[in-house]
Amino acid sequence: MVKIDKSSSYREILREKTALVHLLHSVALSANEAATVEEFMQTCVDGICEYTGWPVGHIYVLSPGKPETLIPTKIWHLDDPRRFALFRKITEQSEFSGGVGLPGRVLVDGKPAWITDVTKDPNFPRAATAKDIGIKAGLAFPVLTGTKVVAVWEFFSNDAKEPDDALLMALNDIGSQLGRAIERKQAERELTDSKMRNDAILKSALDGIITINEGGNVLEFNPSAEKTFGYRSDEAKGKNIADLIIPPRFRDKHRQGLNQYLETGKSKILGRRVELTAMRSNGSEFPVEIAIAVIQPQQGQRFFTAFIRDITESKQVETTLRKAKEVAETASLAKTEFLANMSHELRTPLNSVIGFSDILMAETFGPLGRAEYVDYAKDINDSGKHLLALINDILDVSLIEADGLSLEESKLDIAMVVASCGRLIKERAERAGLEFEIDIKGPLPVLFADERRVKQVIINLLANAVKFTPRGGKVTLRVGTDEDGCPAVAVADTGIGIAPEDVKKAMSVFGQIDGSLARKYEGAGLGLPLSKKLTEMHGGKLEIVSKPGVGTTVTIRFPKERMMQYERSA
C-alpha cells in the first residue's frame, strides 16, 4: 500500500513538472508568435490559470504618470465572467501604491507574495467583494525588466491554500522571462512604429530623399525623388547614385569625395547645405540644394541619406530679381545724375535772377518810378530764393543717394549752433503769429560734426514746424542730453500733426501725405527725408512722435562717438 502511495506521489510530481515545463514552453512560444504585447500577456495569463487551476487572473502595470503607482489593465482570465463581474469592476477602479494591497506589496518587495485567505487579510482592500463571491487564496508575482518592477500579475483561487514554494519559485522565473519578452516585444513595436513613421515621412516629404550605402548604391528613393529625377523607385534601387543623378563630368569627383570620407572621415559637404548640379533621367541638368546626413550603425556599413530640393524656380526668380535690381539701380543712378546736373544748370540763372532783383529792390541805379515795382522785385527775389533752396535740397538728396556728399567735420558747440538757428527762424515764427521758445539745458558736450549740415537739419525741422503750425500755436527748440549722455536736439510744435500710418511716407523723398496739404503748405517734401539722411550720415537717429490735431516732436540724437568733451554752455 505504501509503495502504491509513493508511486502515485511520483506520478503527481512528474505530472506537475511536465505541466510546468509545458507552461514555460508556452510562454516562450507565445512571446515569438504573439503579434502584440497585449496578445502575448493575455496568452500567458490564460496559461498560468490553466496550469494552476485558479479561476481568476489579472495584470496591473506601472502608471506612466505616477511611477510608484500600479494601475489596472483590461487583461483578465475569468473562468466564470458573470460570477466575477463585481470583482472585476472593483479591481478596474482600484489603483495601488507601494505596500498597499497584494499588488502594492509585490511592487515594494520585488518578489512573489501569497495570501492563504484574502478575506481575512487586513491589507487586502478588496476583501469584502472577495468574500461575497467566494474568492479565498491569492498570489501575485512581479514582472521585471532588469531589477525594476514594471507589472504585477495577480491570481485568485476559490479555496484557501497554503503557499506553494515551488510554484512561487517557478512564477518568479516566469516573471523574469516575461519581462525580457515584453521588452523585446516593445522594442519590436517601437521599431515597427519607427519604420512606419519613416515610411510616412519618406512618402510625404516635399524634398527628394535618397539613401545609399558605402558603395554608392541606392537603398531608398522616395516619391519626391521619383518626381524630381524621373526614375521609379524600383528602377533606382540597387543602382549606383553617380550613374543616376550626377552629370558625367562630376562623377569622378563624387567617387573621390566618397572614398576620401570612408578612409579619413573628412568631407566638404556633409552636414551642410550646398548647391550642386544634378541630372534627370532624360539627361537634362538642373540646380539642386542638397544636405547629406551619415547614419552610423553600431555594426556594419555606414549609410548616407541625401535631402535634395530642386531650386530651378528659385534660381530663375533670383536671376529675375537681380536683373530688376540692376535695372532699378541704373535708373536710380541716371535719375540722380540728371537731378544733380539740372540743379547745377538751374542754380546759375537763379543766382542771376536773385542778384538782379536785389539791385532792383535797392534801386541801385535809380528810382524804379512806381512803388509797386519794388514790391514786384521783392516777390521775384523771395520766389527765386525759395526755388534756389528747393534746388539745393534736391542737389543734396541726389548727392547723398549717389554717395557724393561728404561731411566737413570739426569741433562744434551744439548750444551755439542751436541758438544761431533759433535766431534765424524766430522772426519768421513771429510773422506767422506763433510763440517761439528756445530751451538750452547744459552742460553739453562738444561735438565733432559738420556744422553746416547740422544747422541745415535744425533749420529744416524748424521751418517745417513753423509752416505746419496754425497762427496762435507754439514752436519749441530744445537741446540737452539723453539718458546716455548723448546730445539730442528736439523741435516740438502744436501744429496739424501726422497720423502714425503717414510717418513713413513723410520720411520718404518727395513724400506728400496729403495732396490738399501740399497745396495749402508749399514744399516738395524734401525737408524731413533730407534731415534724416544728414543725421544718419553723422551716425545719429531722427525720431518722430506725432498726433493729428495735437502736434509733432522731431528729435535728432547724436551717437557717443561724436562727443569730445563737456563744456558749460549758456
Overview of the structural elements:
- It is a single chain.
- The chain is of the alpha+beta class.
- The chain has helices at 2-33, 37-52, 85-91, 101-109, 127-133, 165-204, 223-229, 233-236, 241-245, 248-264, 312-362, 371-401, 414-431, 451-467, 503-506, 515-520, 527-537; strands spanning 56-62, 69-78, 96-97, 113-115, 138-145, 148-156, 208-212, 218-221, 273-279, 285-295, 303-310, 410-413, 435-440, 444-449, 474-481, 487-493, 541-547, 551-557, 563-567.
- It folds into 4 domains: 2-190, 2-Layer Sandwich (Beta-Lactamase); 205-310, PAS domain (Beta-Lactamase); 316-401, Helix Hairpins, CATH 1.10.287; 410-567, Heat Shock Protein 90 (2-Layer Sandwich).
- Helices cover 49% and strands 22% of the residues.
- It has a 6-stranded antiparallel β-sheet. It has a 5-stranded antiparallel β-sheet with strand order 8-7-11-10-9. A 5-stranded mixed β-sheet has the order 13-15-16-18-17.
- A hairpin with a 5-residue loop joins β7 (208-212) and β8.
